[in-house]
Amino acid sequence: MSIAELRSLYHRKVCENILHIKDGVPNIADSRSKASTSIALLIIERLDHMLAERAPAGQTAGDLFELCTKEFLENSFELLRHLRPGKWLFSVNQSISQFEQYEHLADIAQVFRERPDLAAALGGDYIITPDIIVGRQSVTDAELNQNTTVVSDTDLVCQLTPLRAANRQQPIPILHASISCKWTIRSDRAQNIRTEGLNLIRNRKGHTPHIAAVTAEPLPTRLASLALGTGDLDCVYHFALPELRAAVEAISNEDQMDILTTMINGRRLRDISDLPLDLAI
To answer: Each residue of 16-69: pLDDT tens digit?
Structure first.
């Protein structure tokens, strides 16, 4: 199955399980915004799948969106195994302290529990739980030496790298990517994603994982609150970018089209189908 086919299956699951229209307003749209509603309706028209009979209650929409997106990424990434061999872990809502670069944060959290005064002085929001996590398992010496001798027990080399399982008594995965999933975007949510990204950058021991966000937000100006700027996130990925672009063109809103074009040409906004390939970099 190709990525295009997996993308279509992803959209079908999102439509059938999450997307719903009530009183002419899709549940990804802001009912107070005519542009948001019009764009959302046109995206749904172009996706051309059956919709959910009722909108998921409460935070369920976000949880379902995470699961659908995780499944799409995992299945798509499997197609790239020849480019990115290894044992990969895809999960939702897993603490970063369970990964190599952030294992030390569990010790800091324990100290803060014992010393609340330190937590008050230094801040205690070090350990985050991203919506989707991609991790890579370390490799055995047999795997490293599969084609030729790379390492040996007698050589005093390669003894600190986390990729080599023999370097730890109990190897733990390496965090490869942290992905935030937001069904829609509001200004406060955008700032939370940025804060998580900075946390991952500042508190790591080792390489920085991919830091990305996936959203179904239909309004380009709201996407811009997250996508524009650099440093906090690698990129923002829309669950249906070609459909979004066609929808914005159809309503002839120059302001929304200008900001959308700026984000795409500025390499700050991509389609969900681009994310698996970007994770293979």
So the answer is: 999 999 999 999 999 999 999 999 999 999 999 999 999 998 789 999 999 999
What pLDDT shows up at residue 116? Answer: 73
Answer whether residue 150 is part of any domain. no
Answer yes or no: pTM beyond 0.85.
yes
Kindly list the distances between the CA atom of residue 41 and the CA atoms of 22, 27, 48, 140, 187, in Å, as whole numbers in the listed order: 11, 10, 11, 51, 22
**b/e for 198-213, b at 16 or more Cβ within 10 A?**
ebbeebbeeeebbbbb
**Rounded to an integer, what distance in angstroms lies between the CA atom of residue 26 and that of residue 279?**
31
For residue 42, give its domain range: 3-144+157-279
In a domain, 152, yes or no: no
Q: How many domains does the chain have?
A: 1
So what's the pLDDT on residue 231? 79
In a domain, 74, yes or no: yes
Q: What is the CATH number of the domain that holds 7?
A: 3.40.50.10010
Percent above pLDDT 70 for the chain: 94
